[in-house]
Amino acid sequence: MAAHNRWQTMRHSRRAPRGMALYRAVLGPPETEQPVRVGDVTVKTHSWSLPGLWPDLRWEVTVGYGGAVLHGWLVRSPDAAVPDLPRPERLAPWSCVVNDTLARFPGARQADPNTASQWVVHVDGHQLWFVYGLLQTVKPDA
After folding, report:
1. 50: which residues sit within 8 A by CB, 6+ positions away?
2. In this structure, are strands 134-140 and 41-50 parallel, antiparallel, or unpaired?
3. Cα separations in angstroms, 23 against 52, 53, 54, 89
4. What is the Cα–Cα distance from 89 to 96, expressed in whole angstroms?
5. What is the dihedral of CA 12, 14, 19, 25, to 10 degrees?
6. Per residue in 53-101, pLDDT tens?
7. Smallest Cα–Cα separation from 62: which of 26, 37, 94?
8. How far apart are CA 126 and CA 122, in angstroms?
């Protein structure tokens, strides 16, 4: 909780660096940088491992023109296996990331809840709610 509070304080400080400079200041240089083509635009993803907290996950940031951070979330490390997941209603908080559910449930469809830090995946009559890419709660579809 203390680390989260420091991060939020830094993010909202007028004196803190902006964009990728903030992530570099907090996490150091990214371990990977990869260009990704999205339609007619090329963006870059940068990622950092989080060995003490989640050894199988990475923090990934998508960066656009001029170093603007477009999106940041937790993803599974490329060398880590996607975990076996139970039925959606039996998923536990913090047990998976967005891409895990998309890989394990072929009928899953993503939805943007219009909140920058959140994401929703609809699967088998359930809404899987993620915050920064990590599962938080499962609700029945309305």
Report:
1. 57, 58, 59, 74
2. unpaired
3. 18, 17, 18, 35
4. 13
5. -90
6. 889 999 999 999 888 899 999 999 999 999 999 999 999 999 999 999 9
7. 37
8. 6
Whether the Cβ atoms of residue 124 and residue 88 lie closer than 8 Å to each other? yes
Each residue's pLDDT tens digit, 17-40:
788 888 888 888 999 999 999 999
The two most distant CA atoms of the chain are separated, in Å, by 46
Q: What is the 3-state secondary structure (H, E, C) of 98-131?
A: HHHHHHHCCCCEEECCCCCCEEEEEECCEEEEEE
In the structure encoding, which two tokens stand for residue 127, read together? 């809404």
Residue with tokens 């999106």: 71
Q: Which residue has the tokens 């477009």?
A: 70
